[in-house]
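Convert to structure. Protein one:
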Amino acid sequence: NELEAEEAYKNKQYKIANKKYKEAEDVYRNIKISMQTQTLGNDTGEFFIREMITKRKQLNRYSAKRIGSKIIEITTGYGEKLQNIIFTILGIIITCMILYGIEGVKYNDPIYGERIIGFFSEDFEKFGLLNTIGNLFYFSVVVYSTVGFGEIVPIGILGKSIVIFEGIIGGLILAILIIALYKKSMDR
């Protein structure tokens, strides 16, 4: 059904394509439910992903729902792919770390006093690249995990916006990670 849907879509027969995608979605859902009753968890996840993909392909090509569904597939594998979730976590932490380094953050260092950490600060010239990256990575992980010790704080509006974004996204993705780990451990 899914292959027929793709062929119909290529031939611009959109009604037939949507009908075939719907049929494929139903088939994947039924297989998934059957496998759940047999406690075949790893295989169930694969059919859930296929079900969600065929469901997404029934939506308008550039609709917000379809784009959002694709982003969820890439970043979390619909909560089924641990490697996608881990890469997303690392990607967000590293991206935010770089953005913090561009604007700079204020560090209340107990040894050297208050200083600005960033790629364009005096601190960078004094302590070097590894120290700066280490401190920025530490700050990004603390924000992502929503621990927030408080010895490093953002300076400007960009930094504060990144902290808000990273904290909210961090909480959401960590919750997805916990659920995915739970599902994987319960499947065995």
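Protein two, convert as well:
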Amino acid sequence: MAQQQDEVSGWYIGGGVGQFNAQIDDVDDVDGTVDEWDNDDTAYKFFGGYRMNRFLAFELDYINLGEPSGTVVPGINVDASVDGFAPYVFGTIPLGPYFEVYGRLGYYFYDATVGVENEIDERVEFDEESEDLVWGAGIGTNIGEKLNVRFEYERFDLQGVDDADALWLTAAWRF
């Protein structure tokens, strides 16, 4: 039993790429009301963690959610940039020797920059540091003894954004 515990506990590092989507409904501005702003961009993350056993891990991620941008009303463009760190508690349920389902709960400490530009190239930027809840769930598979590949959905509770989520494909090397 001690040998089996050694095989599933330990350190791991990894990274991944994903698709981040941000949606804002009913934005009020000077010219009227924008019904919806919905844009996405490629995101990436790097992470490291420690597995206590096959069911519980703790993880720290660096997450860059890309730079979604788009037009909110004719002549007004908005772009955003969000990146930061998130510590997580990670729960796993093994489904045999090769597959697992998992859930994660964390807190995202991030820097956000939002830029608004009009049709005559006047630009205003807003910078904010904040922290918000983040949670996710997914499925993983082990390839060999050390490589773990995961597909995951993650939901961010970002201030000022109605819906913010990401789909990730990640890989981790378990030591």
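The longest helix spans residues 2-8. Residues 1-6, 26-34 have pLDDT under 50 and may be disordered.
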